[in-house]
């Protein structure tokens, strides 16, 4: 494995387990010289640290050479719905993809105290990641599964005109619809002849 293969930015994605529609947040980050892959359903946490040697050994069978390769695999499988979780008594198996080419990672369950600390740290890392994305204007490392927050251009508000605007005049009663500004002509009523005028 290349030198520095563990160095990577934190990454997050959501995962919906097709078997029971349960939702998870799958995350990864570098801490204390190891690459961590974690999973939580907001009440329980499963997590595993990989040293460079462990990652290299695990990646031999699945052709993943670095932490970035793992992150890419996690994001793509969460995004296309091919990731799944099998919860066991003392851990969880994260299945990334379908055979052939699938990757299976067993994550031990953290104790309640460790889980609370990990959830707190995860929350602050996600907040820092979002803040960094806002200040730099770049994409955040949060990647929701199935593109839940993708904007649809058909429903975006129309941009406002920057040129002069024309204000329509209010039509007064009797004004012509075809030729605005001119009054409607009243129909002819005829001429009234008075017999008394001839006398």
Automatic annotation (TrEMBL):
Compositional bias, Polar residues, is annotated for: 137-146
Query: One matching Pfam family, short form?
Result: PAXX
Q: Name one GO molecular function term.
A: molecular adaptor activity
Which Gene Ontology BP terms does the record give? double-strand break repair via nonhomologous end joining
- Write out the GO cellular component annotations: nonhomologous end joining complex; nucleus; site of double-strand break
Q: Where is this region: Disordered?
A: 134-199
InterPro entries for the chain: PAXX, PAXX_N
Q: Which domain of life is it from?
A: Eukaryota
Task: Tell me which PANTHER family the record gives.
Answer: PROTEIN PAXX
**What protein am I looking at?**
Protein PAXX
Source organism (scientific name): Conger conger (Conger eel)
